[in-house]
Predict the structure.
Amino acid sequence: MAVPLILAGLGGLLSEQAGVLNISLEGCITLGAFAAALLITLGVSAPLAVCGALLLGALFGLLLSGIHMGLKANLFIAGMGINILIPSLSGLISNGIWGHKGALRIAGNYILSPVSWLMIPLTLLFALLIHRSYLGIRVRAAGLAPEFLRERGISPKRIRISALAISSAMASLAGAFLAMRVEAYVPGMSSGRGWIALVLIWLGFRNPLGILVSSYFFSLIMAFSNMAQGGALPAAMLKTLPYAAALIAFTVASIRQPAPRFPRQRL
């Protein structure tokens, strides 16, 4: 259950480090789930369907970067627009092909356990990439000191465009994994995972290893809420448990984080 959170969280961290936080993670998870289910239903093999989901996610990341950096639109509003567009677009396509906007069944014997075990080495590789590589220095400089890159003939705009494309592709990969694990696409199946992934960026102190630990923590809470349904507590209350935990954890992390100190200036 932690795999979609880890993939989307790492992708969101990459865009945040580049100075363009990807607000459209929620919509891209839905995009990846629908694209994988659609392609598998049309007879495409599972690996090619995952590649198709990755490609579509990258294209929507380029669309977001074009709206924000090309048309100078607000990044938050553009990301929210994509979050609204993708579920509506998937319903339109589903209705045009099958005559309904409901679930798509993709029953199959998918072996996904190796992907789960790859999350730890992937996170370690991601941490090395951001904090110990020349490429990571460029990504962080695009967010913190774009003038530093311009003086050296490097375009921070290109780095931000690439970061948004990779971030959206990783979120789409999370959606494809989710659809293959459930063996179906259901409208609204992202269930706020994209928003939780955004919270995990700061809850993990903008560190890949922190995102990994936070993702496992929230996956345990989500698993507990699923297992506890049917007991004494109302189902509606249990469904809100992961989001309430995200709010509480984010608030505690914000309180514990020390405020930045600024040097005193003489008047």
Observations:
- Residues 259-267 have pLDDT under 50 and may be disordered.
- The chain is about 75% helix and 0% strand.
- Strands lie at 104-105, 184-185.
- The longest helix spans residues 156-182.
